[in-house]
Each structure stands twice: as C-alpha cells, then as structure tokens.
Amino acid sequence: MQVKRFVADTMQEAVARVKADFGRDAVILHVRKVRRPGLMFFARAGVEVIAATDGRPSDERRAPARAGQLAPESSGPEGAPAAELAAARAEPAAAVPAIGTRLTAGQGALARVIDELLAQEVREDLAHEIAANVRLRGSAENFRDWEWVKSEVRKELAKGIACSDPWALAQEKRVHCLVGPTGVGKTATIVKLAANYALIAGKQVAVVVAHSRPLAAAEELKRRARTLGMPVDVARTPSELERVVNSRGGFDLVLVDTAGRSPRNEAHMSELRAFVEALEDPLVHLVISATTRSRDMLDIAERFGEVGASRLIVTKLDETASFGAIYNLCRLTGLPLSFVTDGQDVPEDIAVADSERIAAAILGGNADHPA
User: Fold this and answer.
1) Which residue has the higher pLDDT, 39 or 265?
2) What pTM was estimated for this model as a whole?
C-alpha cells in the first residue's frame, strides 16, 4: 500500500493531485482543513488529504469479504455468536480481583498500563485478558520497561479491532444501507460518505432516504447531496424503496439513509427490517456514537444485528475522551469497523477506520483522536 499526503488550496485541487499520482482507484484515508504557509494574517486556508493506493490493477485486488465476515487480511476475532454477545452485555457474575493481586512483583509497568485501560472503560475481563497475553511474551526486565509494555498492550488492542479493507468495502456491494439509533449522526455520515466516494473515487453516487415519515433531517440531506450533484430520492414504503433503488441501476453506489430507531421498540425495528429486506443484497452499516455506554453499545449491536448489520461506523469521536468502549464493541461482536467520524464538516471529518490509531487513542486518552 502507498500512502501520501496532499496539500492544496481547495478540495478540488487536492483531488486532482490525488488522481494524477494514484489514479481513479485512490482511496481517501483522512481529510482536514489546514493553514498554508504565509506571513502572520496572510496565511491561507487549505486542505490536507491523506490518500492511498495499493498500486495494483483493480482486477488483482483482494476479493471482498462476504457480509458478516472479516476480510481475510483483517486481524481480529471472528463474528461472535448471538448467545456470546448477549452474555457479554451483562457484567461479570463475580467481581474480578484488583489488577495488583493478579500480577507478581516486578510487573508494575503492566499493572500501570492496565489501570489506564480500565480508566478508558475497557471491560475489566478484557483488560485482564490483554495482560495475560502480554505476560506470556515478557520477561522480568520487559515488565520494568514502560515503553515495551505499552507497545505490547497497544498491539493486543489493535488485534481486537477488526477494520474493513477500504478497497474491498468500495467494491463489495453496490447498495450500502446505514442503520442505527436516533441521534448518532447517520445523515451527516451518509453525506460525508457520498462526498468522498464521488470526489476521491470518482464514483457515480445516488442517495435514498427510506422513511415512512421523512423529517427535517431528510430535507437537509437532500439539500447537501444536491450541492454535490447527486440525485436524492425519498421512499416511504419498502416497495417504493425497492423500486427507487432499481431505478438507479446505472449508478456505481447507492447509499440508503434510514430513520433512527430505538432498538427496544419492536414496531420500529420491524418497520426497519422491512425496509432493509426490500433491498437486494445490501451492505448494512450500524452507525453508533462513541459517547454511548459500553453495555448499551453491545445491546444495540445485538438488536441491529437482527436486521443484517455487518459493519460498524463509530461517530462523534470528538465528543468523548474515552475510547475503550469501541474496543469492547469490536472485540465482543467481531464486526469490522469501516469508518469513524469526529465532527460535522463535509467531507473532512470522516476517516477509514485504523485499528492502530484507535489502540493508540485508548492508551493516550484524549491526546489524539483516532480519526
């Protein structure tokens, strides 16, 4: 994989440079606003784009993973059985002994870093599992080395966070559907995805709002998508959704925005299931806020798993300083993380998920957002 930083005055200029260097198969990893060099108040605003290419023709790229499976090259656990996920939502039946009682003298650096995991709301049983794995690889001398211990714990964290391959994700399905609870930022996320797929990947993108009673958010989505030159349709019934998506057969990608649903409202979930089932072989992303409590995340993942959610998008990373719940979610569900977002700006505040960056953020607290 080749990764390169591009800085330009405008997004259009940055995209042109990406395509000139990497071609149309480039994938955006991150975008942010920057201040370009200048004297005092004459500094210019600019855009920084981090883009990548695997340097191979499209037909030689990795085959996409099937829905619900990890890509072969992804690290992390296989999908957890429903019973295991349900059990994981509950607190451990017995209290876990304090970390100091489970480490021998001389392993103080490990105790310290595991205490940091607990402070970051990594589940206690998972934190001790990480400690056990690190202990198998270390010596007494290693456990006195803070940097060695932190590096090994970071590796363990990254192994538990599976991430979707960006090229496989772009090629895997034509229809991507976003589902999730209310207030998690699905509509803003779908605009960011649409903008990046269109601007960077050069794809023809269509957007569909699937909701029996379209709200103001749907009007905002329609307005923002149209500024990007993308058609927006509204489908009020499952049959209408099927018809609309089929009518967009000439588009490379169709992004379907669904209404936020309470996972505990059976009527709402039944309506959502009907909309998703009207789509032919969609890739369903569960959108969930990083500010959600860990136990609630697991409950949400289990319930939305019943409507076919097979990928995760975590939003609002800029609204929390605790990232351990993301590890718990990925580790216990086995679902790959596809994207993360950390703000409202379009198309900047979205990035392809990176397990190493998320692991580093867990150990670094709010020092570095993993997006």
Assistant:
1) 265
2) 0.73
What does the pLDDT look like over 27-40, one tens digit per residue?
A: 776 677 765 443 33
d(CA 282, CA 106) in angstroms, rounded, equals: 52
186 Cβ contact list (under 8 Å, min separation 6): 178, 179, 180, 257, 258, 260, 287
Other Cβ atoms less than 10 A from the Cβ of 216: the count is 8
Q: Which residue, 172, 123, 171, is CA-closest to 310? A: 172
Place of tokens 């505040």: 349
Which amino acid type is present at position 322? S
Tell me which residue of 331, 265, 337, 339 sits closest to 294, measured CA to CA: 331
Query: How far is the C-alpha of 71 from the C-alpha of 59, rounded, in Å?
Result: 17
Q: At residue 108, does pLDDT exceed 70?
A: yes
The closest of 277, 309, 80 to 180, measured between CA atoms, is: 309
Rounded (10°) angle between helices 82-89 and 324-333 = 150
**Tokens (6 digits) for 194:** 């649409």
Q: Which CATH architecture has domain 162-367?
A: 3-Layer(aba) Sandwich (3.40)
* Token pair recorded at residue 187: 């509509």
Closest of 5, 55, 46 to residue 26, by C-alpha:
55
- Report the pLDDT averaged over residues 2-21: 79
What are the domain boundaries of the chain?
Answer: 2-56, 99-159, 162-367
Per-residue pLDDT of 314-365, as tens digits, reads: 999 999 999 999 999 999 999 999 999 887 776 667 888 889 999 999 998 5
